[in-house]
Every structure is written in structure tokens, then in C-alpha cells.
Amino acid sequence: MPKSKASLKARYASDKVGVVGTVAVDAGDFRLLASATDTTFVGGPSLNGLSLSVEKPGSFVIDYDVPKQDVLFQFMNTVRVLDKPLNLIYTHDKGVNQTALNGTLVLDPANKLSANYMFDSGDCKLKYTYMHRAKSTFEPSYDIAQNSWDFTVSQRLSDEDILRASYQTSSRVLGLEWSRNSMLNGTLKISASVNLAEKQKEPKFCAESSWNFDM
Predict the structure, then answer these.
(1) pLDDT at residue 183, rounded to an integer
(2) Which residues, 6 or more positions from 1, have their beta carbon under 8 angstroms from its beta carbon?
């Protein structure tokens, strides 16, 4: 008998409130998903915010945005380079005609190199990930098109709690995020960000919580 799971995610931001619900059904090697947002039910049932997906974990994902009639294809594969695994993800968004290739070379459990290339614009981003003693993670990334650096540092406070800080040099946005997993079979995330380039420098806050259910 196929296994079904459902999830509900609620997000409150300074400028927007949103809810997303997802139902996933395992059908052998494949997984069928349907997701809807709060706009699907405002003013009566509609197709707004509704998307349907079929995926084979580790191989491909086909996502169909019903109201926009937009299809997104994503293919995954892993190859060996100098006896190191290189994880590749090829993504094509038919609606906006965008194609991207993302590759992550796993040097060892503590070190990874990643690259993301956009075929339409030629933009390329590089990222290096270093994990120290499975608790601290450092992720500098470089945007070749904008000639700018981004920095992310995260610290695992406990088995459930992670604190993350980030800074984007191009936009001068400083961010701080705290997340907790496995809370009531779900997650809780609270974040704040401030644009240091603005005169007011008013922080923006966001709270996000999700719950998972077996059906």
C-alpha cells in the first residue's frame, strides 16, 4: 500500500504572511507530490498556488505549476572525479527559459567545492564549504558576474539547534538565523536581516514553522 505524508508550513515575515501545504505519496520508486498555498483557498477553491510534481529521488524531478502552466525539469546524477563523488544537478525552467547546472565535489566529509552556472546569462557562482568537528560550518562564496563575496557561518548548538550568520557584500545585507529541528515532528526557524546600505537600517524579521504528518 502506498505511503502518504503531509506537511504544513506557515511563514510570517515583516511584509508577507503565507501558508503552504504539501501531500506526498510514495509509489514504488517514484514520489507524487501536490502542494497548495493559502491563495488556493482564498475566496473559494482555485488553481492559484497549486503545483504538481513527480520525482524519483536522486534521479529527477518534474514540477508543474498549474496556474502558470509552467514546467520545471531537474535531473540529478553522481560521477567520480579522481575517485571523489561529483554531484550534478541540471535544472531547466521552461516558463522563463532558464537553464542551470550545479555541481558539488565532495573532497572529504569536511570539505566540499560547489559551482552554479546559468546558461542564459553566463553567471557563475563558486562556493567552498568547510565543516569543523561536525559543529561549525564556514561557507565563503564568490559571484563571478558581480565580483562579490558572500559569507555564511553556522554553529550547531545542540542536536536540534543551529545558529547561522550571513553577510552579502554586494547588497550589504547582514542576516542572523536560528533554527530548531524535530520540534513536534517539524521545524521552527526565526531569522532577522538588516541592510547596512540603507540609512534607516530597519531590521526585517521572519518566523517559519513546519509540521510533518503520516497519513
Answers:
(1) 60
(2) none
Q: How far apart are CA 67 and CA 108, in angstroms?
A: 43
Look up cell 569536511; give the residue.
Answer: 110
Q: Produce one character per residue of 198-214: b if its CB has 16 or more CB atoms within 10 Å, e if not.
A: eeeeeeeebebbbebee
Average pLDDT value for the chain: 92
Q: Please give the span between the terminal C-alpha atoms of the chain, in angstroms, as a whole number.
A: 12
Residue pair 152/128 in contact (Cβ under 8 Å)? The answer is no
Asked if residues 145 and 123 have their Cβ atoms less than 8 Å apart, the reply is: yes
What torsion, rounded to 10 degrees, do the Cα atoms 36, 40, 46, 51 define?
Answer: -20
3-state DSSP assignment of residue 94 = coil
- Report angle CA 92, 87, 140 to the nearest 5 degrees: 90
Say what the alpha-carbon torsion angle 36, 38, 43, 48 is, to the nearest 10 degrees.
-40
Say what the pTM is. 0.86
Q: List, in sequence order, the alpha helices (H) in 65-131.
A: none
Chain-centroid distance of CA 98 in Å reads 18
Confidence of residue 96 (pLDDT cuts 50, 70, 90): confident
How far apart CA 25 and CA 52 sit, in angstroms, is 12
| Residue 3 bridge partners (DSSP) | 26
CB 178 within 8 A of CB 192: no
Backbone angles phi, psi at 25, to 5 degrees: -125, 125
Q: How many residues does the chain have?
A: 215
